[in-house]
Amino acid sequence: MPLSARADLVRADYGKSGLLGCPAGQRCGTAGTAPVGAVYIVISNPTRDWAPWYSIEVEVPCGEEEADLTPDPKTIDARIQRGYSVRFRDEPTSHWDGVLTVSAGRNGGLFTPGDSMVLLLDGFPVSSKAGLVLLKVTETSGRAEEVQEHSVTLSLLKQAPKVPRNFRPKVALVDSGENVVLLWDGPDILKYEIQRPDGGVELAELRSASGWQWSPQPDQAPKRDATYTLIAKPETGQQPGYFLTTTVQLRSPEFDSVTATNGVHTPWAEGTTDKGRIVFSAQGAEIRGASGAPGIVSAAKGELDVVSTTSVRGRDNGAGWIQFPPDGIKVGHGEGGDLGTVTAEKVSANGVNTTWVGELDAGKGWLEFPQSGVHVHKDGKREWGTVDADRADLNGINTKWVQGRDSSTGWIEFPPAGVNVFQGAGNRQWGTVAAGEADLNDLVTRRARVKERLTVEGDLNAAQNAAVGGDLTVNGDLRPMRNLEVQGAVIAGDLTVRDKLTTDHEQFKLVVHGESLFLGKVNANRLLSVRTEDARRRRPGVDPGRPASPRSIPFRQLTVMV
């Protein structure tokens, strides 16, 4: 079919067809057998110009006659084999409905100089009668103003088979240990041998009504995908032999070792003996046992960013374990649900909820947390223990007694009546309270000793003796219920004695620098001396003969001798 000088598809070189590996033509089937055929149609542009095209149609004759290609056109798988370069246009599409139609798209396609396209028709049974099959190919091509249809007829020669063919496994995908059966067709005039994947060769002599057949010995069953070679030789040895290969794939292959530089792509991997399995999911990998249940990972070390699990335990059955309930972590040990022990050098936590806390040695102190607060015990028993602290800030302390850091220091007891202070040495000997200031509502004591000054703003009541070593300053009244004995001087702005005033001094008995008022009798067992600067000062208007009041009796010296 002619082409324009500018651009067109080829004529004589437009197409070449034939069975792949058998350029002489297709082999027709025999009785009971129907070999699978394949036709390759090569479209090329041998010109120096770009060739625009729009469609290509291939008509295939179907039936059982000599000029027919196949008795079953529905089995033909017609398609475009990739390799055609799309330039500036749409990807070509194919359609099969008894006629193969290839379309270049709305705007057509372009074949560059030397460009090609392969149309493939395969998967169909070849009709059994030998003969010449003609394929009509029609193209629609040319530039917009010169679009034309061009037709060419391609020929295929169907010949009666005279060589071995259709070498195939009975089952292409088998399980490990499953019997492998290889089948092929061929004349009886040839000698057939099978070359195993390991290179060994065995004679194949089993002939059945449907064809030839061979199986490996049970101990030679393949453990991984295996390729077998059929060697067919004439008995005379004067003609060249034939070599056909086929491959048997295992559903679960075994490998001595695998080296993958670009990775291994598989949905799962399984062991050969114990049948442990690794399943690859969208989230990662799952480890399963032989039953399909989650399995066990054994490793010397694992480095993970995050571990999501319901529990973690030691390798032994009686080892400790950690569970992860919704509220946190649960630590236990053994096969049951007994709680375990957490051992750590340091624990940093916002809070700890526990019934008790103990030292690493079970025989040491421990804390118990009842509803009322904290109990401190010692020696691993329920005996009360000791709290040692540099400082304690408490709202209140309920205790029987308080003592210094060692047994020689003082201690305080808290009886129902109040507080008892004892010395550290001895047996309940009263101790001393030392304070910068004491603010008391009442002070009840057997003795009170003031080394420097005792200042009483209110009343000072002493049921028995009150001894003051220094000065005693009383801003108000000093009213002793019994005797008041003063070793030094008594200085008072006003001194009132209701019963008896007894003074004892090395030099002076009683010294009064101001006026003295005695409502009762003044008894002096020895000497009573009263001195004043002026025995009698006359004032104008004063009668000198008038008797003076007791307060102003004029005398220089009054001496009473008893």
How would you sum up this structure, described in words?
This protein has strands spanning 26-27, 36-44, 51-59, 77-81, 93-96, 99-103, 109-111, 116-125, 131-141, 148-159, 165-169, 173-174, 182-185, 190-195, 201-203, 206-208, 211-214, 226-234, 242-250, 268-270, 277-280, 285-288, 311-313, 320-323, 330-333, 356-358, 366-368, 375-378, 383-384, 401-403, 411-413, 420-422, 449-450, 453-456, 467-468, 471-474. It has 562 residues and is mainly β. Among the domains are: 26-159, Immunoglobulin-like (Sandwich); 165-250, Immunoglobulins (Immunoglobulin-like), CATH 2.60.40; 400-433, no CATH class. The strands form 10 sheets. Strands 1, 3, 5, 6, 7, 9 and 10 form a 7-stranded mixed sheet that branches. A 5-stranded mixed sheet has the order 12-19-18-14-15, with no helix packed on it. It has a 4-stranded antiparallel sheet with strand order 11-13-17-16, with no helix packed on it. It is rod-shaped and about 180 Å long. It starts with 25 loop residues before the first strand and ends in an 88-residue tail after the last strand. Mean pLDDT is 79; it is low at 1-25 and 548-562.
